[in-house]
Design brief:
The protein is α/β, with parallel strands linked by helices. It is built from eleven helices and 13 strands. The protein has helices at about 15-25, 40-50, 65-75, 90-95, 95-120, 155-170, 205-215, 245-260, 280-290, 315-320, 330-345; strands at about 5-10, 30-35, 55-60, 80-85, 120-130, 180-185, 185-190, 220-225, 235-240, 240, 265-270, 275-280, 295-300. A seven-stranded parallel beta sheet has the order 3-2-1-4-5-6-11, sandwiched between helices. A two-stranded parallel sheet has the order 7-10. The protein has a two-stranded parallel ribbon with strand order 8-13. It is globular, with a radius of gyration of 19 Å. The termini are far apart. The structure holds uridine-diphosphate-N-acetylglucosamine.
């Protein structure tokens, strides 16, 4: 049987690369489009080591509509796209909002425009739990019915805007576009082979890469941002989801879009474990699972941090037939194995 192609924009990035691996495993033929602005071609080698296949790769910036159009001309049988290509650093987005609006919105508009003109297409959009802001206590854990709060950063606003843009596209009178927006909670960990994983440039902003780099001796100590929140141990609570589990949800979403008979729908799914962990708990589990020390100290709160948010993933469990069930200890081991490999510790 002919393998169906799936365009994966940002497919050389952290979540993108893990998704490409799962697409191959499920029998799809991913086509990666990436401008390598936050990744490198070595990621493609990592994918090849895992899958045994050299991934199809086009160095393309999705904000350049002409090159995206040429890609669709070259691969005229692409009906499905997973759109990861975007900037994602919250702090940077506050400093450089136009860069975020320019990149994140224009690339989505280009992709949606091409797919609508082509007809019969579907898009899986890489969204975020950031669209919920700080949910009120009665909305925890957060399900898809929770109200969207004004986003705290230009990054968060781009996720809300992109969801709205896609919704409007789906609602145009003659649209046959189908969309699934996946709202990720906090992706962590690396492929068990350690051939691919998270590779932040510069000082990591996210918790787990900072933890692994501190364990590896690259950073002196982890700063735990605040221990005076209204949570059991005072540190912030998040829903940390294994990146390989998250990747599999994208395959489930593509399967759903492909099999669906109805055209012109837009759906939203929260992707998390359903379990909230505090920063201090994460730290403990990491140290315990890997038998390694991570020096840390309590530091002031980080501006813009939400106190606590975790997912009610039951809609995704039910409708996508998917569950994030990798034990967190195993996830922590995968993160450390990856860090040790890239640092040769
Ligand atoms: C946020 C967004 C998420 C987005 C991500 C992109 C929310 C709720 N989440 O994740 O949608 O995709 O940014 O980067 O808006 N921490 C420390 N010390 C550190 C680093 C982090 O204590 O050195 C703490 C943070 O205060 C936070 C937790 O660890 O409580 C997780 O932080 P991080 O990994 O940066 O992710 P979010 O801010 O939750």
């Amino acid at each position: 049987m002919k393998r169906e192609k799936v365009l994966v924009t940002g497919g050389a990035g952290y979540i993108g690369a893990h998704t490409v691996v799962e697409l191959y495993a499920a029998g799809y033929e991913p086509v990666i489009a990436d401008n390598l602005s936050n990744s490198s071609e070595e990621v493609l080698d990592g994918i090849q080591k895992i899958t045994g296949v050299k991934p199809v790769f086009e160095k393309i910036d999705c904000t350049d509509k002409a090159s995206l159009e040429s890609l669709f001309e070259k691969f005229s049988d692409i009906d499905h796209a997973i759109h990861f290509a975007a900037y994602k650093a919250v702090g940077e987005s506050v400093e450089r909002p136009l860069m975020y609006y320019g990149n994140n919105l224009v690339s989505l508009i280009n992709l949606a425009g091409i797919m609508m003109a082509k007809g019969n297409g579907s898009i899986v959009f890489s969204s975020s739990c950031t669209v919920y802001g700080q949910p009120s206590p009665e909305h925890l854990p957060v399900d898809e019915e929770a109200p969207l709060k004004p986003a705290q950063s230009p990054y968060g606003k781009t996720k809300q805007m992109c969801e709205s843009i896609l919704e409007d596209c789906v609602n145009t009178p003659k649209s046959d576009l189908n969309v699934i927006s996946l709202r990720y909670f906090n992706p962590i960990g690396a492929h068990p082979s350690a051939h691919i994983g998270e590779l932040p440039r510069g000082v990591p902003q996210n918790l787990l890469p900072f933890v692994t780099q501190t364990a590896a001796g690259l950073r002196k100590e982890l700063h735990v941002f605040g221990n005076d929140y209204n949570t059991p141990d005072g540190s912030c609570i998040r829903d940390y989801i294994y990146v390989c589990d998250l990747a599999k949800a994208h395959v489930a979403a593509i399967d759903r879009l492909r099999d669906k008979k109805v055209r012109g729908t837009s759906e939203y799914f929260n992707l998390g474990t359903g379990r909230g962990l505090s920063v201090l708990e994460v730290l403990d589990i990491f140290m315990e699972s890997n038998n390694v020390k991570v020096p840390f100290r309590i530091a002031p709160r980080r501006a813009g941090d939400v106190e606590q948010v975790w997912a009610d993933p039951s809609k995704a469990n039910r409708e996508l037939g998917w569950v994030a069930d990798t034990p967190v200890e195993e996830v922590m081991r995968s993160a450390w194995k990856w860090e040790k490999k890239i640092r040769c510790v």
